[in-house]
Amino acid sequence: MSHDQNYKNLILDYPHVALALFAAEAAELDPGVRIVPVRQEQLQERLGARFRELDVPLLVEWPDGRRAAILFVLEEETDPRRFSIHRLAHYCLDLAELFATERIVPVVIFLHAAAGLAEQLRLGGDRQVYLQFQYLRCALGELRYADHRDSDNLVARLTLPSMQYPPGCKVEVYAQAVRGLTALEPDPEKRLKYLDFIDIYADLNDAERVQYQREYPEEAQTMSRFAERFREEGLQQGIEQGKQQGMQQGEARVLERQLRLKFGELPADEATLLAWSERVLTATRLDEVVSYGEEGHVS
Questions:
Q1: C-alpha to C-alpha distances, 147 to 120, 143, 152, nearest whole angstrom
Q2: Distances (CA, A) of 85 to 62, 77, 126
Q3: Cβ–Cβ under 8 Å, residues 171 and 145
Q4: Which of 122, 142, 162 is the last residue of a domain?
Q5: How many CA atoms lie within 13 A of 287 on its CB side?
Q6: Using one digit for the tens of pLDDT, what is the confidence trace for 200-217?
Q7: Cα 169 to Cα 150: distance, rounded to the nearest angstrom
Q8: Phi-psi region of 264 (alpha: psi -120 to 50; beta: other; left: phi over 0)
Q9: Residue numbers of the domain that contains 54
């Protein structure tokens, strides 16, 4: 999975705290606001070739109506050299036209330090500027780990490994990210999902993993037991589903034999056979078990 998709998932799973970290203007948002991801199908249909799948537009609405809705457009750039302020401006103008609003906040999340990039676009002549565009910029590689190590913002804790920290502190950073995940995320599926996220961006080598287990044994054992138990539960569910599927397939084979004995050869797939299973015991004629479509296909 790409870094773009990882961050897209992160923003969609935790939109409130993602905006609080990535978008300075969002600091005013209170817990009562409603944040709605804009449906990508809608954008693709109306923007056509201009649609950018890996952008994350979030519509922020105030239920009491005291402020007009704001559309936050978040874009993640792993490599700052790929960033184009012209492309971003073009996309924001498309969205402004599409949603008939001027309340749009573009946010660019750089995974690494991003020095020297254009932060505003000005179009005009000698006397006047006719178009001025700028965006909120969050370069994770420039944020100080020490400022966020004990944050109660889950997105900040999950992205600690991408922040700036002193040499030799990677294992501590990893531990603080895992502590944040266990303390702030109660959902077991998301815990497992974002444990993988932390692993990807911390990228501990074998020696660092040994160091982590030695210096943070409680955290290491807790998450190891949790991950093992969760995966075992998932495996058991898969086994039970497989058993159920096997039973259904067996029932279909029995039904097929019954139909052949009673009515002769009949072309039908497994799903169709299962659908007929309740009718065959009381049927006296084939048409009481099956029905046919207009073109003579079994339905």
A1: 27, 8, 12
A2: 29, 12, 22
A3: no
A4: 142
A5: 3
A6: 999 999 999 999 989 998
A7: 15
A8: left
A9: 1-142
Q: What is the count of structural domains for the chain?
A: 2
pTM value? 0.72
Alpha helices in the chain (DSSP H): 3-13, 15-22, 40-47, 85-99, 145-148, 154-158, 170-184, 188-202, 206-215, 217-263, 270-276
Cβ-count burial of 12 within 10 angstroms (0-12 exposed, 13-18 middle, 19+ buried)?
A: middle
Cβ contacts of residue 256 below 8 Å, gap of 6+? 268, 273
Task: Locate all alpha helices (DSSP H) within 48-103, ordered by sequence.
Answer: 85-99
Kindly state whether residue 203 falls inside one of the protein's structural domains: no
Examine residue 157 and state whether it is found in any structural domain, yes or no.
no
DSSP letter string over 183-211?
A: HH---HHHHHHHHHHHHHHH---HHHHHH
Residue 212 placed within a domain: no
| DSSP type of residue 258 | H
What pLDDT does residue 160 have?
97
Distance CA 156, CA 150 (A): 9
Query: Is pLDDT above 90 for 14?
Result: yes
Report which DSSP code applies to 150: T
Residue 13 per-residue DSSP state:
H
User: For residues 165 and 181, what is the distance between their CA atoms, to the nearest angstrom?
Assistant: 19
**Cα–Cα nearest to 88, from 131, 129, 44, 135:** 135
